[in-house]
Automatic annotation (TrEMBL), chains A, B:
Binds 1 zinc ion per subunit. The lineage of its organism: Bacteria, Pseudomonadati, Nitrospirota, Nitrospiria, Nitrospirales. This is Galactose-1-phosphate uridylyltransferase. Its EC number is 2.7.7.12. Keywords: Carbohydrate metabolism, Metal-binding, Nucleotidyltransferase, Transferase, Zinc. It comes from Leptospirillum ferrooxidans (strain C2-3).
Amino acid sequence: MPELRKDPIIGRWVIIATSRGLRPKDYQAEKVRYLYQSCPLCPGQEEKTPPEVLAYRQSGSLPNTPGWTLRVVPNKFPALEVEGTLDREGVGLYDRMNGIGAHEVVIETPEHKKALSKFTEKEFENLLWAYRDRILDLRKDTRFRYIMIFKNYGEAAGASLEHSHSQLIALPIIPTAVVEELVGAKSHYEEKERCIFCDIIRQELSDGSRIVQENQEFLAITPFAPKFPFEVWILPKKHASSFDQGQKSQYEALSRIFLDVLRRLNVALKDPPYNFILHSSPLQERAEDYYHWHFEIMPTLTRVAGFEWGTGFYINPTPPEDAARFLREIDLTIESEEIP
Amino acid sequence: MPELRKDPIIGRWVIIATSRGLRPKDYQAEKVRYLYQSCPLCPGQEEKTPPEVLAYRQSGSLPNTPGWTLRVVPNKFPALEVEGTLDREGVGLYDRMNGIGAHEVVIETPEHKKALSKFTEKEFENLLWAYRDRILDLRKDTRFRYIMIFKNYGEAAGASLEHSHSQLIALPIIPTAVVEELVGAKSHYEEKERCIFCDIIRQELSDGSRIVQENQEFLAITPFAPKFPFEVWILPKKHASSFDQGQKSQYEALSRIFLDVLRRLNVALKDPPYNFILHSSPLQERAEDYYHWHFEIMPTLTRVAGFEWGTGFYINPTPPEDAARFLREIDLTIESEEIP
């Protein structure tokens, strides 16, 4: 059973793989499993993954067989385990709990080589519905306090399989980065009785220099103080704390703008590795008034990794106003011929 | 002039290179300048760096000529600029200030190919004295609130030059990661009137399972909740908030244990890329009672980078107790023949 441990100084929880920890030689041997043949996520290979927990499939096709357009399975090498009770323990100064949680893989397409930026709006919208369906299902498990949904695209961004997929981790704790956002947003709300994200949206719409794209329901911006060059946030214009509580029209509008942003990044930065992360409200805590869900998309462009990991201090070599302008000026109508 | 910008939600300051920002094509072209010939940090190439601000040299040798054993120069491509006044500005919700600061390179040895783990204790001690000398000098500049000293070793850890060097950045703000530590340590002190780091040292000495090495003055441990596999912290056993306020014997003892830890990591993980970061008290704030300086050393072993950057959520595949045991069990007496 993995273990969750809390840093006694700053309160950050980390997952420690206690059961079968990697030894020094494992790191030397570690190669990213970038499989081109016998991909375990491809149709016909369903027996290579644990049984599916969700699939969108052709009517008549059987579970765990081909015929799906999207499939969600438990991670075969989970960072957390779903079975068991949530035991907590103090050891002197330290706090630990056993690593209860869900770790799932969202197989976004049956096509091995199809990148997300090549999805149709309908295909992309299905992915958003899958995120929502899994959140709604996992919400029933009261052991969980937070659901993280994220995608690693490309080796440099941490992807270990080429086949297009995203991941979901349900946690019995709230990750530090989310706690920081909640604390900041709550403090702004207590002072001004306004959501800070709504204030940001108003200011960005009025300023304009960091807007990448917008439609009736969503705004895509490069944030004022981005950690990474070409970082883009997509926020619903209307206040809402949880991703999974939207109307159908919202998912359609989000699909359009999200795909548009991914295509712009794809053209501007020539198919860059990237991560995106859904920031949504915690499951148990009440944050409706002051938290505002959004996606953060971060291309992996710089190598100054370890230092910034260690300090939380970021040096960004591209002003977000420049990044937004580059992305705005991309002509997507000529994209399809140029980029494979 | 670079710019410092504050994230309005969580309060994180980032440096934005506004003057000559990188364009999309610069990232595609970006190659790490791993120079083997005409290294700008080698003796005889002194004109390739800005004039030195500190050097330990043979008596009689002239500034900015060969004859040095260690040399500190301003970074030729600084993230912050030292000239100017510290102007602050609010723009609606947002805060910015101009990027005043110092960014220096500590050239640790004249020998191009000599890694830090191959230094003698005396050479390593000189490096610690150089850190101290620079801190004492930069303390005089009241614009600065924090001095970060760090090393990136190896390309994967962000080093852009092969020649052994570390870096110093003096900042008009306190980085988020340090603020978090200060807040946590202060809260512990207010509750218990004890330094949390001193409490950790007592518990680790009594427990023993995470001790890598110790001597009379210092303790090297793998922390209870490490972000990274084989992360090691080196702490002075006696409470002290600032690195630069120690006695001579402390720097000797620190040199011994630091070198011992680097050699163990070097053998266990076969010359891994790594970062180390000095965590010391801010320059203006009074944190003597509750803050406790230390070094954090983080080998770069895993690739799950972007996601953890984005969430502050870490999955560590090696329990720190295992890592400490592997490192303790290294026999350093047979090291020199095996490792180039």
